[in-house]
Structure formats: structure tokens, C-alpha cells
């Protein structure tokens, strides 16, 4: 199955490296990375910074449609403002390892970026609980669980 055009998806990655396994072990979940997908492009943050690249499916991905109430144009506009910015090493270290909330403006780790962009794209009337959350306190697994609980995840895409 192909991803449909003009729909926003989120991809959660199961670990394939030692660092990925350590992340999922520390965060008590099965995911070590997440990213947004739109029209065959991936919008993500990793140690190389905030970037976009062509989408290539990998067998360690679980891909879900995101709620249609998320304004894709706003998500993409917000991403453009952040593209090229750095990876938030301090936030991932302090928030995920020591559980101390620290964040740098314009630097994001993967789940922090995804939650920030989803928050920006959500209708204000739907987001009180979501917008009050600190994005830098979310690991990929915690973000998955929360989006599922908030019913913002749609169907799982089978590739």
C-alpha cells in the first residue's frame, strides 16, 4: 500500500542500533525515533539537525495517519521556519535521561519537533490538553501513547 497524497502521517521507528535500543529501554517503549511524512517527504530532526528528505520505507517503521483536524499547511509553514536549525542535545540528555525539563529555542529532538508541529497545526478548540504539554518531555514512545490516547492517530498503514 502506498501513502496517500495530501495526508499527514507520523512514523515511529523501532530501534536498529545500540543507541536506539538504549533510548527505547530508557523510555520504556518500543520506539526510538519518530518523524512526520507528507507527500513522499519526511520532516524530521536527528543529530544532523532539522531537515527534510525523500521518504523511503524501512521495515522498522510503524506509520499512522494523523487526524484530519491537523492543518497541514500550518505544520509545513512552521517546519520551514525551523528547517536547518540544530538538534537539541541538551534537552534530550536532561529531559530523557534525567527527567529535567530543559529546552533551547529553535532546537528540537525528534519527538519534541513532531509534537511542536502537531500542536501548531491543531485547531485551538481541540488542543487545550495537548498545547499545555512541554514537548521536550516526550520520547517517541510517550508521544505515540499520548497521540493514541488523544485519538489523534488514525489507521496504521500497512506497507
Can you describe what's shown?
With 159 residues, the protein is of the alpha+beta class. 35% of the residues lie in helices and 22% in strands. The chain contains six helices and six strands, in the order βαββββαααααβ. It has a six-stranded antiparallel β-sheet with strand order 4-3-2-1-5-6, covered by helices on one side. α2 crosses α4. It is globular and about 35 Å long. It starts with 7 loop residues before the first strand and ends with a strand. The mean pLDDT is 85.
How does the SSE layout of this entry go?
Blueprint: E1 8-13, H1 18-26, E2 33-38, E3 41-46, E4 49-54, E5 61-66, H2 72-82, H3 89-97, H4 110-121, H5 128-131, H6 140-149, E6 153-157
Antiparallel strand pairs: 1-2, 1-5, 2-3, 3-4, 5-6
Helix pairs in contact: 2-4
Please name the defining characteristics of this protein.
159 residues; 6-stranded antiparallel sheet; globular
Quick overview:
This protein is 35% helix and 22% strand. It has helices at residues 18-26, 72-82, 89-97, 110-121, 128-131, 140-149, and strands spanning 8-13, 33-38, 41-46, 49-54, 61-66, 153-157. The mean pLDDT is 85.
Distance between the termini: 5 Å
Number of strands: 6
Q: Roughly what fraction of the amino acids lie in strands? A: 15-25%
Tertiary shape:
globular
In the sheet with the most strands, the strands line up as 4-3-2-1-5-6
**Estimated helix fraction:** 25-40%
Order of helices and strands: EHEEEEHHHHHE
Q: What average pLDDT do the residues reach?
A: 85
Total number of helices: 6
| Poorly predicted residue ranges | none
Q: What structural category do the secondary elements indicate?
A: alpha+beta
What is the makeup of the main sheet?
6 strands, antiparallel
Quaternary state of this entry equals single chain
Amino acid at each position: 500500500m502506498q501513502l496517500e497524497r495530501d495526508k499527514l502521517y507520523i512514523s515511529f521507528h523501532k530501534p536498529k542500533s545500540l543507541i536506539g535500543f538504549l533510548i527505547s529501554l530508557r523510555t520504556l517503549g518500543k520506539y526510538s525515533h519518530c518523524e512526520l511524512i507528507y507527500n513522499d517527504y519526511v520532516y524530521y530532526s536527528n543529530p544532523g539537525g532539522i531537515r527534510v528528505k525523500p521518504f523511503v520505507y524501512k521495515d522498522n517503521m510503524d506509520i499512522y495517519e494523523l487526524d484530519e483536524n491537523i492543518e497541514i499547511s500550518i505544520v509545513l509553514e512552521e517546519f520551514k521556519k525551523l528547517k536547518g536549525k540544530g538538534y537539541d542535545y541538551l534537552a534530550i540528555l536532561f529531559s530523557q535521561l534525567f527527567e529535567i525539563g530543559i529546552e533551547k529555542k529553535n532546537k528540537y529532538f525528534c519527538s519534541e519537533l513532531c509534537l511542536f508541529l502537531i500542536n501548531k497545526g491543531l485547531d485551538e478548540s481541540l488542543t487545550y490538553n495537548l498545547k499545555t504539554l512541554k514537548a521536550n518531555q516526550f520520547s517517541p514512545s510517550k508521544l505515540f501513547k499520548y497521540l493514541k490516547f488523544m485519538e489523534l492517530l488514525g489507521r496504521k498503514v500497512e506497507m
